[in-house]
Every structure is written in C-alpha cells, then in structure tokens.
Amino acid sequence: MATEIPIWLNASYVQKVLRKTENDESIEVSDITVKPATAKGDNYLSAMYRVTFKFLRIQGGRKVGGEKSIIVKTTFEGTSLAELIEELEVFYTELSMMSVTLPKMNEVLSKASLPQLGAECLYYQYEKPTHMIVEDLAPKGFTMADREKGLDLDHCLVAIRNLARFHAASVALVEKDPDALATYNKGIFRENQTPLLITYLKACVKSLANVTPYWHELSPRISEKIMKLSDVVFAKGCEAAHFREDEFTVLNHGDFWINNMMFVYDERRVPVNCIFVDFQICHRGSPANDILYFIGTSPSDDVRVLHRELLLHEYHASLAVAMRNMNCSTKVPSFENLQEALKKRAFLEVIANMISLPIVSIEKGTDLDISKIAGSVDKSSHSGYHRKSYKEIMIRVLPLYDSLGLLDV
C-alpha cells in the first residue's frame, strides 16, 4: 500500500532519538534521506522506511563523524487500513515483542551459542505516531529472497532450522519465567476477532471460488465446496488453531512466510543464515501453526512436492538440538507427535494456500490494500488469484485437500 513519508520523520527527530537512546547530547544529524524500505506488494500491515543520514559527535574532545542507516516502522495513520490494524492490535504485539520478549529470547539463543533471530530494537513509541526504530540489516548482508520464485531447498532448510530455534528459545524462556508469554494470546484465529478480518478471510475464499470454475482441470464440485467454505473459513480456522494446554506449545511467529525473513549468503551465494522480521501476529500455540503456514506460502512448488518430509525431519531434529543446548527440561515431542499435530491442524495449510499464497503470487510492484478486499466480498479481489503460477499449485493441491475432507463444511 502506497504511503507518504511522515512529516515528523526528519533530521531533527532522528537527532532527538539518537541523543536519547545513546545518551549523547553532542550528536548532530544532517543529510537525511528517507525512502520506502520495501517495494510495492511486499508489506501490508505497516509502513517501513529506510532512513540514511550523516552524523557528528564529540569524542575525546574532538568531533568525529559517520554515516548510518536505520529502519523506521510505523502504522498507516489516516488511511483506510488504519481501522483494521488498530482493531487487530498487531502493532502493539510487535512493539512488545521487539522491546521485551525478543531481546530475552536472543539472550537465551546467545547463551547457547546460536545467532540472534531478530533485529535490535533501538527505540519504540506506543503513543501516536506509533512507531519503532530498528537496526538496518542490509549493511550486515541480509536481503530478502524472491517471493515470486519461492524458496529453494537450501533456503527452506535454513528457514526451518531457525524456526525450530525460535520455538525452542520460547520454551526455554517460559521455563525461566512462566508468565513471559502470557500476553501473546491474540493470533488471527481467536474469539472476539474484528469483523473486518473475518470479512477479509471470507472475501479471499470467495475470490478463489470465483476463479476455479475456469480451471477446467478441476471438478466443478470443488468450486462449489470452496464457495460454501467461505462462510465458515474463520470458524474452521479457529478450530484448527485452538490452543491446547495439554500439547507441546511454543511462541509462534504467526506470519512465517518468505517476506518475513532475510537471508545472508556465503561467497557461492548459498544461504547460511536468516533473520526474522514482522513479529505482529506472535501467539502461543502448537508449532504446527507456523510450520503449516510456511509450507503453504513460501517454498517453491517442487520443494513442497519432493521435500516436505525432509523439512519436517529437519525441523524436528533442529528443535531437539536447540532445546538440549538451551538445557530445556520440557520434553521434546516425538516426530510422531509432531505429525499428529500437523494432521490435526491441516486446515491451516488450506487457509495459507487460499488466502496468503495469492498475495505471494502477486506480480512484483503491484500495490495491495487488504482493507478494500474486505469490502468486496462478492468480487474477485486481486490479481494473485489469476496468476498462472498460483493456478498450477492449486490444481494440484485442491483435489488432495478434497480427498482428505478438508474442503467439507
């Protein structure tokens, strides 16, 4: 969604923040440049800006200078999307994660000699303009992968290993402080969800139902089932994501897809690590929630078809090693337990394919306003549903979902 650069985001403001966060009144900021940090179609629930500037400060009795870049993340103030974001409370979840919980998790990871999984939060503000300032990961070599191509096996293995470490760190954190994750109970699928979000989900599923009749490779019965499914998709999502105290639970990232991770590469351009961004939908629950969403949105289709089992084994092995390295007393679930959890929540992958994968499929540079989609329930909502790449995936998976009863109301 296109946004204008906030008036308050200027040299004077950056200087004030730096002086406060670094406790140095000598800092002077100049030559500031503010640009969008993401391309159109790559970010939907917040606005992100890369701020580059020069600075001077007094050290050892003389002025020294340098250049720095930071990322400023803000809400969409005064836009059609602001109401939805406010009701979802996603920005406040992320502020809590970045300022309190993630630093504690990174500390746990560090003690186990594992790399951090989120950028450092330099400053945050709850009052309006609600925003936060985080380190810019680009100078460290981190970049986004190509969402249109999807992640190849090397990228997927790096991502799933780090997801397991993220989950393990949350387990270790709860063992130290049982109330550490108590506030993270507001995932997408929860009671008292905003009607705007429920309408959005319904609109997306109807969009799929509107295009599938033209996919002659599919039985007409499937289109009819998807149309009926649109009326109950939120309720079925709540049932699949339901928090169960008697199961192995972790802090889920909640929006673990290709655009919310950045990779760093070796000299052969092989990914060696990744770091996570956008902690807006973090919530407690089964690790299956994140795993199914990742598989439904992010791998290239050949990885989905050929290497799904490998990814699950890699996740499980990485979880076990990380929990052991963090000296967790919680029992690691068996691989069979993990498979059972995935089976119970399989509908979450269906939702990811029907609602999020079309966004992944949108052509680069395409702008998207999800608040408008929520207001167009009876129309095909955006171009992602019409992309050839999306159709090729869905004509393969929809008959499979149908055979498993996942499309039944």
Describe this structure in words.
The structure is a single chain. The chain is α+β, with helices and mostly antiparallel strands and 409 residues long. It has one domain: Aminoglycoside 3'-phosphotransferase, Chain: A, domain 2 (Alpha-Beta Complex). Helices cover 44% and strands 15% of the residues. The chain has 14 helices and nine strands. The chain has helices at residues 11-21, 82-88, 90-111, 153-176, 195-211, 220-229, 233-241, 288-297, 301-306, 308-325, 335-344, 347-361, 370-373, 388-403; strands at 28-36, 47-59, 62-74, 121-125, 131-135, 250-252, 261-265, 271-276, 283-285. The strands form three sheets. The protein has a five-stranded antiparallel sheet, with helices on both faces. Helix 3 (90-111) packs across helix 4 (153-176), helix 4 packs parallel to helix 10 (308-325) and helix 8 packs parallel to helix 12 (347-361). The longest helix is centred in the middle third of the chain and has 24 residues, at 153-176.
